[in-house]
Amino acid sequence: MKLRETSYRNLIACIIGATSFKPAQVEQTVGLLQEGATVPFIARYRKEMTGELDEVEIRTIEEQFAYFSELEERRITVLKSIDEQGKLTPELRDSIEAARLKTVLEDLYLPYKPKRRTKATIARERGLEPLADIMAAQQVTQGTLEEVALPYVAPEQGVPDAGAALEGAGHILAERLSDNADIRGMVRRLTGEQGIMTSRVSADHKDTVTKFEMYYDYQEPLAAVPSHRMLAMRRGEKEEVLYLSVVAPVEQILAGIKARLIGGESVFTPLLERVAEDAYKRLIAPSIEVELRLESKERADEAAIKVFARNLRELLLAPPAGGKRVLGIDPGFRTGSKLAAVDENGRFREHVTIYPHIGEGRLPQARQELLRLVENGRIEMVAVGNGTAGREMELFVKETLAGAGKSLPVISVSEAGASVYSASDIAREEFPELDLTVRGAISIARRLQDPLGELVKVDPKSIGVGQYQHDVNQAMLKKSLDGVVESCVNFVGVDLNTASWALLSYVSGVGPSLAKAITRYRDEHGSFVDRAALLKVPRFGAKAFEQAAGFLRIRGGKQPLDNSAVHPERYGLVETIAADLGVTLPQLLADVPLIDRIPVKRYVTDSVGLPTLHDIVAELKKPGRDPRSQFQAATFRDDIREIGDLKEGMILQGVVTNVTAFGAFVDVGVHQDGLVHISHLANRYVKDPHDAVKAGQVVQVKVLSADPQRKRIALSIREAMAGK
Fold it and tell me: Whole-prediction pTM value?
């Protein structure tokens, strides 16, 4: 829906009011987004326009723009509906125009919203609205209720006596109270601030043991329930183990409603008090509880998705082993272990299946095949999947290599999502002739070489770094995780001549369709010699080039800047700088001291400011530099393979696999991750576990306890650091 100019200005004002950003920042950022610019492109190449907003801030504006766009469209609909009813007063219009929350707008619209047939509707049909008006006016101070109601008794219309008339008029007043925006706002505020979330076990499960035991008789202030507990309780409710409810401050709420309804003593006072209670308990409380529970769920979703997104980002940006020839192993017992060799560019070379774990008779052949692949592939590293038989395979490989006088790193690699990739359309396109398990071994090898390049082929939800990912809003989760992948891919940059279409699809301005067009063109015409050649790709136009070019790398091409994050739109500027310094572009790139002497302020223009110039200088110093950290692998103890091997007090090395709101999970090589509670993450107070550890980080841990039966391991980083 195209917004009117007045609506657009109102929308911009709403975003400014909801954020701490300057008007120019909001206006320029929204303008760029409306023109089709991506968040990574804006953050990297339009810093002057946005006042150097980072990706998080730009995405905040993008989200606020979407929210207020929906609000503005709804506002237009509401105004039109009320106006068509002939009930739009100037005061009501002003209130609707001033609404900055969807709930406030809906509260204002509620009295005018078409309703299903209610008790109040029936009472109006029976002619009882005038009686309701008399009761609301509260001007009768003498006589009885029956005397006031008597004129409205009409048996033929379903009002047999005064009691029925008063009851019907009461329903009308109760609905008016329920439709009152001020009252609903008061109830929502008090319930939200003081309400208690309660959880009780259902009758069918009160004598059974479930994973929801701690919530069988549980309560906590609604406003304080953390994300993981809210999602756990809701899952328990969904599985019909728990019954959830919100206990509101009823007395305070009723006092507030009565104060708004009852203006003074009248013959109607006792009846109006009952009307207030009926309005709250029958009409207001149920709907407000539904609203607040939904809001709390949305907050829990948002918090859980943020945790998932941070873990995913850390995993995607894990240090790559780089261009090493790797042997990937998807281990197994009865079905054998699949071995796949890939070269330094990740190209598949050879595979074999060995059976080292099903009898001594198969061992010699298994050792022979392993050593043959290592020799033929000139293997430099071995990547072993950490699933079933993973630890046994690690030991087998190490013993076999040592027996042959070879010393190669043997690294445990997470298999999370590998099976999903193996059966995916992408895997079938890459290796149509190979078995699923062989594809998995190739993926394991490539994950060691470049986690980002391989993991982008897998649905982020399958990578195993989330918390209650199946319980949260799936559309919101997908949008967030896709944004993380896009951010990581563009942060690192992509080799235009070696990247898969899956990786290219996340480059700013590209997408799956253009990514496949790029790889088809590359297959037909050979490697790209420069970025400009992208414009020869079918349907790859000037806009796509503007958005994508700076994030694509060409190593060894004819234009040295093509292997940097310098955007082609600034090539002329860099060449001018080189000429002013009296050197060629290659000479400038090879002379860091000379780059340090570039007088950047001299080159400031209306379109190019210091932020862009500083970025250019940084790129000239290290063109093509991978921004990820140096690769480091964890070393698991060979004598520790199962939970039963763990002893209290052991100090072990492990890898952080998942960070949650309450701590972190660490793989110590026993097929079951151990939990480091937030209180044991560091030798200081930690509010956010991400402040202490990151997914993929190698850490030292101390075993606090290990329970093989319940498959629970308690670990401590704090005590390992202290050497206790």
Answer: 0.86
